[in-house]
Write a structure and sequence with these properties.
Layout: H1 13-44, H2 47-58, H3 60-72, H4 77-100, H5 106-130, H6 140-155, H7 157-168, H8 171-188, H9 197-203, H10 211-228, H11 230-260, H12 264-288, H13 296-313, H14 319-347, H15 353-378, H16 384-403, H17 407-414
Helix pairs in contact: 1-2, 1-6, 1-7, 1-8, 2-5, 2-15, 3-5, 3-10, 3-15, 4-5, 4-8, 5-15, 6-12, 6-14, 11-12, 11-15, 11-16, 11-17, 12-14, 13-14, 13-16
Length: 418
């Protein structure tokens, strides 16, 4: 590993603000999201309706990211980020009020999740496209290790969410999330980074085009860019297949633990908590050290295969072994994430990041939604563990076919000094 320190500090004012804002909103969202899953399972007592709940959140994230990506390459991503956080604060405060009045029912929840999913799909593209602009040269791997570490820390709040939900109910958690989004939005308004890509895109506008025609032109350009970049194309297609498998996992895992073990949600937390510890350790490793650029492709493909195989078989193991397996999966998972996102965000030009991230998120979300719906249907007739194993084996196979079959193109993206 290379321990050379970058010449410029990563912790600029803007990077510090975006990091603190992310930390605050992630913690609230993690607590609220997991507790909401428990509420749905307790209320519906149905894996199929649980899949519908997940699909309602996921569905808008298929189409919206592509169009929002094209728009966000032309308008301020910073303003989009803090505006959506303000809107989310209001939305969650309203949800807390509705629950307080005991107006809860499944159709209202489905609509709420659809709205939240739409907001999140736009926010994700804006954040992914804006975040790299706040990273100083030579600090990409370190920055994304921090991003991953924040996600890991937010997962630690899941046990807290479980206890809070069982003792206090959902209303206080919705209120906490509203406050979290409000704090994040206020902090993000203080970011001062200039968005020079906007001027560049304005100079390249199609002649006398309406906003609608311009948006479709941007969308077409983004898809053409992805088509021309074989390495990015292979990475996007592989992660779309992998997302199908993880969509299956999201539907099967929590209900399986709740049905198989007494107090199964706590067993679930124990197993996935080891993954959180592994991700935390992996993030610290990536923050301190840089993997040699020439080995990143090889590391990535091995990680893709091992993690898919591990998640395909772990439900057949006893709980202590599950925990050990997921500790390793956590370390490998953050390695996969850091290599992929730091490389692709560094590789894609600033003025095209929105469109690439939009296309990537659309395809991945579409795969995730397909996995959720298929799992909801298949588990009516087949054993959940069998369904999960089958899809994870497919994911491992396609890592070898797509990533392994495009070694040179993917290496050109991954094996970069960052």
């Amino acid at each position: 590993m290379n321990t050379n320190q970058p010449a410029r500090s990563l912790w600029t004012k803007d990077f510090t603000i975006i990091t603190l804002g992310s930390a605050v909103s992630m913690v609230g969202n993690a607590m609220c999201g997991f507790a909401l899953s428990l509420l749905v399972l307790d209320y519906t007592k149905s894996t199929f309706l649980y899949a519908i709940y997940l699909a309602a959140y996921t569905l808008p994230q298929i189409i919206v990211p592509v169009f929002s990506g094209a728009v966000l390459d032309r308008f301020s991503r910073k303003k989009t980020i803090y505006t959506l956080d303000f809107i989310s604060a209001v939305l969650y405060a309203f949800a807390a009020y509705v629950l307080h009045l005991e107006w809860f029912n499944f159709p209202i929840l489905a609509v709420f999740c659809f709205i939240v999913g739409t907001i999140n799909s736009i926010y994700t593209v804006a954040y992914q496209s804006f975040y790299p602009l706040l990273i100083t040269e030579g600090n990409y791997s370190k920055a994304y290790s921090i991003s991953s570490f924040l996600e890991t820390v937010s997962m630690i709040m899941i046990p807290v969410a479980t206890f809070a939900y069982n003792i206090l109910g959902m209303t206080p958690l919705f209120t906490l999330n509203a406050v979290s989004f409000l704090c994040a939005a206020i902090m993000e308004t203080q970011i001062s980074a200039k968005e020079d890509y906007i001027k560049l895109q304005q100079q390249n506008r199609i002649a006398s085009g309406s906003f609608k025609s311009q948006m479709f032109a941007d969308l077409k350009e983004g898809l053409e860019y992805l088509k021309q970049e074989k390495g990015l194309q292979a990475v996007t297609y592989y992660f779309t297949i992998a997302s199908v498998a993880y969509g299956v996992s999201s539907v099967i895992t929590l209900p399986y633990f709740k049905e198989t073990y007494p107090n199964g949600e706590y067993v679930y937390i124990m197993v996935w908590g080891m993954s959180v510890l592994g991700r935390g350790l992996g993030s610290l490793i990536h923050y301190k050290f840089k993997y040699p650029a020439r080995h990143k492709y090889n590391i990535a493909i091995v990680v893709y295969v091992i993690t898919a195989l591990a998640e395909g078989v772990y439900l057949y193991l006893n709980v202590p072994v599950m925990m050990a397996v997921f500790f390793v999966v956590g370390i490998l998972g953050v390695t996969s994430y850091t290599i992929r996102i730091s490389a692709t965000q560094n590789y894609v030009p600033d003025e095209k990041k929105g469109r690439f991230n939009g296309a990537f998120n659309m395809l991945n979300t579409g795969g995730h939604l397909l996995g959720e719906l298929v799992a909801g249907i298949l588990t009516i007739k087949f054993a959940p563990r069998t369904v999960l194993t089958g899809f994870m084996m497919i994911s491992a196979l396609f890592a070898l076919i797509i990533i392994g079959g495009n070694k040179k193109a993917v290496s050109d993206v991954y094996n970069r000094e960052l």
